[in-house]
Amino acid sequence: MAMRNPRLPMVPGWGTNPMIGKKNFGVRPIFNSIDGVNMLVDKAEEGNRVPSLYARKQSSDMPSWIVLDKQILHFKAYFQQTLHELRSASHVVRKVDIYFFLEDGTIKVMEPRVENSGLAQGIMISRQRIRLPHSYDLYYDVLDLNIGYDVTFHGKVFRIVNCDNFTRVYLNRLGINVPDPLPYPDTPESEPKVYHAPKHFPFKQFLDLDRQVLRFFGYWDDRKSEFGIIHYLEIHYYLADDTIEIKEVLPPNSGMEAGPMFLKRMRLPRNVPHHIEMTGGPLVPSYTPADLSIGAILNVFGRKVVLTDCDPFTKEYYRVHYGFDDFQPLPMPEDAGTVCIKSNISDRELPPWNGYGSYDDSAENCRTVEPKAIHRDFMKFLNKDKVGFDSHVLRFAARLIDDNPVNRRRYFIIKYFLCDDTIGIFELGERNSGFTGGKFFRRDKMYLPDQDFYVPKEPPAYTDKDMWIGNELVINKHCFRLVGADEYALRYLELHANEYPMANVPLIMDKIRRTLASQENGYKNFVAKYLDAVLPEKRELMTVRCFKQALKEVMCEKMTEHEFVTLVRYFRGDPGQEKSPRREMIRSLVFTELTRGLWDDRARLKEGLLHADNTCSGVLSIHRMRQLLRAHRLPLREDLMNCMLDVLPKDDNCNIPWNELLDFLDFQTRPVFNLTNADYQKVVRHAPPVKDVECKLWKEMDLLIHEGYVNWSAFLCQLNLDHLVKDQP
Q1: Per-residue pLDDT reduced to its tens digit, 312-334
Q2: First vs last Cα of the chain: how many Å apart?
């Protein structure tokens, strides 16, 4: 800024304006340095202030507001407040918390809030530095606070009686001895104690029993009067002030007035006096909790109210205070007139279904002139709709039961949707079979066979309890046999085993246990016959074929195919081995599609995967992996790509290691046919071709059941029938 010329007079037009050309008029709210510490850099400058409690070079060179940030000393204290309006005591003891902030030496005093104390509690002294009494330049410091010390804050004397563990350890490290905690004093009394008869203190009763209500259920029989009925009542007894309130429970469409109050809240006298003085006179005795119990009769101004039941809080109250244990409710009387009226009202009988639309649509057209939309089970839809990886769709493989051998080779997928109990059936057509495949039956309710459909009420339909391997479903005169299920369906049934007995391992084991126990020497012969069937190198394992044969000989027709699959999955001796044929089969199909599409750009795909993995974690999400495969133009259909991503290993967060994808597509160093030719032909024979309808489920259940091993020792251990062998000769 140019200096003003002193020779020129200070009149308008003779001076220069220093604001000309200036654009920024704000002041930057930045402190360049505080106590010698540069705020724009991380480390402190030389010559900082050293805390006064430590010798030089024995503490950090950083200032106290950095070193001691968020370090607070907590003390327990009390002070005595004088009472002039009560004769029983001269003062009252009030407990407080004293907080000393080490970073700047400030103090805050706060009194904990006590409900219904009648005192203004909370922050008593806000955070600030407090001077020592009779001093203008000295303030309270760490050395002035300790257990047993009396401190004076703004004329009020506080006595410290305790501190927390951090405060004790901090003071001990400074070389300060911290005494043991002191007890809080009792409130002194101005006069010696003299025994008096117990008095009733309404305010104390209100403080102790506020919001505690005894709730009874009862009735008043008014049928002796003209047009009288039975009034169902709720009796509320307020323990805070011994008042009673009675509400009437009105049934819907009763035709009574809307006011449900039978008796407003008041003290209910035991006996109604003939003449009640409005002012003066003794109080009329009223009902107390001792007068209320199940079966008691209350005189509500001439009306006999019978108590029949109470809520759990009331039962617990009488159990604790009066020692009652019997709370058997009394039956409610039925109003004959009301029952007679209800019996005359019959349910509306709809005309039989005419075959147009669904049953719900036809019923809605019959109920009202203006049809409304059908209200589905919304809560079931919310709970069983698709949520993340939970699709709530059970997929089963099925075969047709038919005399025609061509139809017996057809392969179907049956989907059961749990959100609305509908079933959709799809066919996976084979090449040169004469069947194109696709949608076989559209998604709809599938009703049980041999039902009369032209009736007013909807006939019963198939439910999720009917979906298990081995069951036969007759749908539109087509008989399907469920021969397999995908991993999600089996897992869902096992997780909800309490709803599905076919997937409940304890129930299945109990069935086998009862069958072996009912036969003479049944368990002994069962174990001895298959003792040599276990593997010689691993005595605890048995092949699945032998395990199934052993159970069939014992159970005969008492055990279903799904129960056997459940046991095989539960006692699996080689977990994870059943998925290897499927992986190689999918790998073979992927190799065929890539060869047909002339795709051989694995190096560029690796470069794209490395670029996408910006965190160098080695894994990518399924969605991101699918985007990269489409970006690199892999000639794979969407269903086959989903199957490939499904068989790749995943971590706990369902992310796929991209190295596994590269190994999966490495057809040069790792050939496709890792299986033998016979095993591969077996896999292909049991797995139908890939179709867009359903690719997640391939017919590998037969391979899963008849291949692999079962932990025979674990099965016998859980069967727990060794005592039968000891008892038998």
Answers
A1: 999 999 998 888 888 889 988 87
A2: 118
